[in-house]
Amino acid sequence: MIVISDSAAGRIKDMIAEEETPDMFLRLGVNPGGCSGFSYSMGLDDEESEEDVYLDVQGIKVVIAKESMRYLNGLEIDFEEHGMSGGFTINNPNAIASCGCGQSFKMRNEEGRPEVCD
Question: What pLDDT digit, counting tens, does each position of 10-65 carry?
């Protein structure tokens, strides 16, 4: 289960519309690396694989590689406006720690590949 707030869903839908590519969707994933051991990947995509899991969240097609599902179950994505800028925020109930940038996290029983933050 993935939760996308109304503000994040609106922003993602706008981004998909701007692409003008048929069948565009949101791809979420996890990669080893980052300050805390694992890092999030989040972007638009139009290529699918047999190794993907498909969700419909707020009318958005969300695609996640099967191997990333265990890290992302219960994930909450929000979009916050800050003056003239804004950005996506991620709350992951599976993470026991995250770095200050919010793009990297640590799992209880898995090391990942911690890297020095820039």
Answer: 999 999 999 989 899 999 998 877 676 788 899 999 999 999 999 999 999 999 99
Identity (one letter) of the amino acid at 71? Y
Quote the CA–CA distance of 22 and 32 in Å, as a whole number: 31
Which pTM was predicted? 0.80
As a whole number of angstroms, the longest Cα–Cα distance in the chain is 41
> To which H or E segment does residue 4 belong?
strand 3-4
The residues near 64 (Cβ < 8 Å, ≥ 6 apart) are 2, 27, 28, 29, 52, 53, 55, 72
Residue 18 — φ and ψ, nearest 5°? -65, -25
